[in-house]
Amino acid sequence: MKKLFSFIICTMVAILSLSIATAASAETDNSRFSTKLTSSVEGEFKAFGLNPPNSNSVVNLTKNKLTFAGQATGNTLYSNSYFQGKSTISYSITNNIGTKLTVKVWNDSDWIFATETLTVNANGTATGTIKNLDANALYYLSFSAPSDFSGYVQ
Predict the structure, then answer these.
(1) Burial of 76 from C-beta contacts in 10 A (0-12 / 13-18 / 19+)
(2) Is residue 99 within 8 Å of 147, Cβ to Cβ?
(3) By the number of CB atoms within 10 A of the CB, which of 49, 63, 85, 113 ranks highest?
(4) What is the pLDDT of residues 58-101, one digit of tens each?
(5) Residue 76 near residue 145, CB atoms below 8 Å
(6) Which CATH number fits domain 26-153: 2.40.30.20, 3.40.50.10860, 3.30.1490.20, 2.60.120.380?
(7) What is this structure's pTM?
(8) What are the structural domain ranges in the chain?
């Protein structure tokens, strides 16, 4: 029974990893998703990944304001950088399309539950603060599809 359970789990992980092993470039346009690079200034992150960021890109919010923008028709987008450095952050996110946008803040050590879930109304802007973050932890953002958004975290 234990071997069967292990086999099923391994099979599910393999199928899941194959289904999400798609890579996005900094500027791509096809029928599944579209993203456009808005800036490459140091200290900014670009919300263009189809997967969470890797550990090579970490932005310290005590030094930089992070601006971002992205578009997708069918895929969740992720920030290409982790951020850290503050226990309270402020945000402003503008949703440029006619459906609500769900933005999740993730702690890298918790892949199951988002630290915070934000909803931006259709053609609206959400601003606010998120408190009680661990300043030493790594966080990243995810943006639900369909999406056309811009904003910042600081």
Answers:
(1) middle
(2) no
(3) 49
(4) 899 999 988 788 999 999 999 878 999 999 999 999 999 999 99
(5) yes
(6) 2.60.120.380
(7) 0.69
(8) 26-153
